[in-house]
Amino acid sequence: MPTWVCLLRGVNLGNLRKLPMAQLRQALAAAGLSDVRTVLQSGNVVATAPLESPAQVSGLVADVIAAQFGLDVPVITRTPSQIEDVISGNPFGPEAPSATGGPSWP
Questions:
Q1: What is the DSSP string of 70-83?
Q2: How far is it, in rounded angstroms, from Cα 9 to Cα 30?
């Protein structure tokens, strides 16, 4: 079964669009995803699913969030290798300063 990385846009920003991660994991597992993990309160989800495309996974996750939490949340889904490609393709490298002008990456 493929592993998918789901990035949820605009959740848990201050008091806006609250989405409890523990309840989200339970809801996604009940909807058929396996090994559901979340990263802190970020809205990032990693799970396995028998679905064949990122669009199918995004649709399922968005539908669960709408039904269970009443939120319309855009979901971007990628494979782990696609995420690794983005990281390895970083044109700024580990020495680049952050966008805010703060310290560079450790």
A1: -----EEEE-HHHH
A2: 22
For residue 36, the SS3 value is strand
Note the pTM of the prediction, 2 decimals: 0.81
**pLDDT tens, N- to C-terminus, the chain (106 residues):** 899 999 988 777 777 778 888 999 999 999 999 999 998 877 789 999 988 899 999 999 999 999 999 999 999 999 988 888 888 887 776 665 555 554 444 3
Handedness of CA 28, 30, 34, 39 (dihedral sign): positive
Q: How far apart are CA 47 and CA 1, in angstroms?
A: 10
Q: Set out the domains of the chain in order of their start, with CATH numbers.
A: 3-88 (3.30.70.1280)
**Which DSSP string do the residues of 20-33 spell out, in sequence order?**
-HHHHHHHHHHTT-
Q: How far is CA 104 from CA 49, 85, 86, 90, in A?
A: 36, 21, 18, 14
